[in-house]
## 1
Amino acid sequence: MKYAAKRLSFPSAILAGLALLAAGCAAAQGSTAGGAEKQASRQPDCAAAWSPATPYMAGSVASRGGVNYTAAFWTQGNAPEQGQAWQAGKRCRPAAQAKAADHDANFPPNTLKFLKANTGLDGEQWDNIMKLVNKPEQDSLEWTKFYGYCEDIKDKRGYTIGIFGATTGGSNDEGPDGPTLFKEFDASSGASNPSIAGGLARAGVHGSMQGKILKISDSAKVFCDKIGGLQNNPAWRDAMWNTFYKVYIQYSVQQARQRGFSSALTIGSFVDTALNQGAAGDSGTLQGLLSRSGNSSDEKTFMTAFYAQRSKIVDTNHYNQPPNGKNRVKQWSTLLNQGETDLKNADAAVQKVTDWEMK
C-alpha cells in the first residue's frame, strides 16, 4: 500500500572506533563498554538453560552461566561445568540481550544514541513504534525495507519518499519535507554548505524549487529508481532520520512532555498522527486534535480522549482509505488498554494488534 497523507539534528558524526587492547592484557583488563557490546553482538544466542530435571541426549545443547554446552553422551543432573558429560562451547548472549540486539540492529548506532538522548526511548521501543506506523502505511511491519521507497500516489503531494513518507510537494502539500530531506542528505554526505541542489546531485536526480515545492524534472521511473538505489546508503538513512526528527518527532515529544507524559506509546501515537495528518496547523493535525482532547493529567484518560477524537476524522480528508484509519488508531488504543505503554517486551502484542487487513 502507500503512505497516506501529509503534514507540516541529529548529528551525522560517525562513532569513534574502539580502542584496541593488547592481547596479553585483554583477559585481565576486559574491554570497553562499546567493545563489550560489539563482542556480545558477535556471540551466538544462548540455548535453553540447563535444568537438573531434564535428560539430555548426546549432542543436546544447554546453556549455563552465559556459555553453551554440548552433551557428550546421555546425561541428567550433571551440571555442565562439572564432570565429563558436557563439552564447553562459546560464550553466548542471554535471550533478553539477543532480543534487544535484534531491535537495535534496525538502526544506525548514531541514530540509536541520538534517539535515546532526545526522546528517552531505546531501540526496542522505536522499532515497535515504526512497526505500528508502517502497517497502515505500507501493510508491512518490515519498515527498514522502505528507506528507498518512492511513488507518486496521485494525492497532489508530489512524490512520497522513504520510511516516513517525505513529499516533494503539490497543491495538497505546500510545505513539503522532501526539500529538507535532500538538504540533509547533502549534509550527511559531508557538504560544508549543504543545499537542496547538492542533495539532488548526490542522489543523481534533477529538479528545482518552485516556491516551496520541489519540482522533479526526471521521469517517475528515473527518479524513483534513483531513490530506490539509496536504500542502503548510510548517509541517506542518516538524513532520513534527521529529517524525521526535525519535522515530526521533536514536536511530538515536546507535546507529550508538556502534558507530563513520556511513555513510548504516547510519543509513538503523536508521531503517527503528525506524519499522517500533519504536526501543526488546521484542526485535523496533531496540534488540532490535542486541543480537543481535554486537560487530564492522567495519561490513560487523556490518550483515550485523544484516540476518540482522532477516530472521528482519521478516515476523512484523504488521510487514510476507510476503514484503514480507524484500524490505525485501534492499534494504539488497544495497546493502551492492554497496559503496553512502554512498548518493551511487546513483540507479541504489536504483532497481534497489527494483524488486520488493509483495504
## 2
Amino acid sequence: MKRIAIILLTLTSILFVQHVPEGLAKASNELSLEEKYEQRLTLYEKMEAITNVPWYYLAAVDTYERGLRRAQKDRPAEEGLIAIYFSPQQWVGPLNPDLEDTNPLSISMFNGVGLDGNGDGVADRNNDEDVLYTFARYLESYGFKEEDFRIALWEYYQREQSVNIIYGHANVYKTFKTLDLDDHTFPLPLHHNYSYRSTWGDRRGWGGRRIHEGTDIFANYNVPVMATAYGIVEIKGWNKYGGWRIGVRDLDNVYHYYAHLSGFEKGVEKGTVVAPGDVIGYVGSSGYGKPGTQGKFPPHLHYGMYRDNGYTEWSFDPYPSLKSWERKAYQERKKKK
C-alpha cells in the first residue's frame, strides 16, 4: 500500500509540473529584466491554466505587493520572481509551533494558507510557484467575476484603496497584454519652452501653512501635458488648491498628480488606461478658489508624486525623476536625427 501511494504521488507530480523555460533555475538576481518578465508571465499563465484566475489579476496582485516591499521597511525584499508576501504565521498557521513547516497536511491542520503549487509534496513559503498558487487558489475561492475579485481583495487587504490600486493594475496589464511596462517620459513636449527647478518642500501660504508637494514646470497656456508612466486615471476634476487636476496611478503604486490645468484631453476619464506620452491635459493657471478660478499665478504644471505603502500615501520629491526622464527624452530625440 505504501509503495502504491508513492507511485501515485510521483505520477501526480509529473502531471502537475509543466515545462519550465530554459534558465528558470537561474537565481532571479542573475536574470535580465526581459528574462524576469518572461518567466513571471510563464508562472502567471501556468496558474491561470490551473485555477482559471486570469493572469492579469495575478500580475496585478504581485505588482502591488512588489511595491509594498519597497515601501515597508519591515518587509524583506523578494528573493525570487514573485513578490507576494505571506508572513510565517499566515503560511503555516497561527498556532503552528513550527514556523518553518512545509508539510501541506500539518499546515492545513493548523489553518495555515500555504499550499503545494508545483507538485513536489512541499509547501514552501519561499517557492515562487507555491506562493503564487496559494494566492490564486484564494482568489479562485471567491469566483471569477470582476466583483468577486474585488470582494476577495477587500477581505484580504481590508482597505478600499488597496483594492482600487490592484484593480487598476489589472486593467493596465489586460490592456497592454505584457509585463514590460517600465518606460517613462517627461510630462511636457521638449520642443515647447518651459523651465523648472526643485521646489518640493517649499512653503505655501494659500489655504493655510503647508509645504509644496511637487515641482512646478512653467510653460505657456495650453501646452500639452503627457502621462509620464503606464497607469490608470484615478482622479479627474476640480481641487481648490490644484484647480483642474488629474491623477494617474502607475504600476509602482505611485500616484502622479498633474495640477493647475486649463483643461483635459478629450476622452480621458476616470478609469482611462494611459501610456507614457499620452496627452491627458493642458497647462493652465487654474486653482486657489472655487471651480473655474484662473489666473492667480503664471501658467505652469504642478507635478507631484505620492507613494502608497498599503496604509497611507506620502509625497516625495519628483525633481530627480523629472531630470532623468528629460535627459532620456533628449537622448532619444538625438538618436532619431
